[in-house]
Specification:
Elements: H1 6-37, H2 45-64, H3 72-94, H4 101-123
């Protein structure tokens, strides 16, 4: 593994701080919204589970396809899969009151395998469009 330079460590640290700030601001804005609208003090766990599952599945897929980052086709097919994932997820979650967290764990593994096969099929050089 190549040694990381001091500037690389600083950039990583700044990225981690920016992500943490975004998370804190998001939670704070949600709390303000709930207080103003008289909403439930409980967190919307089904939506948090969906967001977490989405981040895990697509994060690992992006990491696994590092060689394809410079290919426009990779981002196109990943974006299409992401759009389908979001539309189906929102439609399904709007129809249920709660979703068990164990379901997210099971579905994340299945969805990652499907996404990996999908990307492998469409990014394979023998399947040029």
């Amino acid at each position: 593994m190549p040694r990381q330079t001091k500037s690389g460590r600083i950039k990583d640290w700044l990225l981690y701080v920016a992500i943490a700030v975004l998370i804190v601001i998001s939670v704070w804005m949600f709390a303000i919204h709930q207080a103003r609208t008289g909403g439930s003090p409980n967190l919307p766990l089904k939506w948090l589970g969906f967001a977490g599952t989405t981040a895990i599945v697509f994060g690992y897929a992006i990491r696994a396809c590092r060689r394809s980052w410079n290919k426009q086709r990779f981002w196109l097919f990943l974006g299409l899969f992401f759009a389908v994932h979001c539309v189906l997820g929102v439609v399904l979650l709007m129809r249920v009151a709660t979703a068990p967290w164990v379901l997210y764990a099971v579905l994340a593994g299945i969805e990652y395998v499907v996404l990996a096969a999908y990307l492998a099929y469409f990014l394979d050089s023998s399947n040029e469009i």
